[in-house]
Amino acid sequence: TEGTFRPDGVFVADSVLAKHDETYMPKEVAESLKSKGVWQESKSD
Predict the structure, then answer these.
(1) Which residues sit opposite 2 in a β-bridge?
(2) Structural domain tally of the chain?
């Protein structure tokens, strides 16, 4: 995360840097979809 601290000590983020791409899905979400039977496995190239 990049940003600055305001005089009152609150951090204001200008950008949030993620370590994943657009296909990332949290493990908990994937497990929930699988348990509901709506999970669709992604297709690799």
Answers:
(1) 15
(2) 1
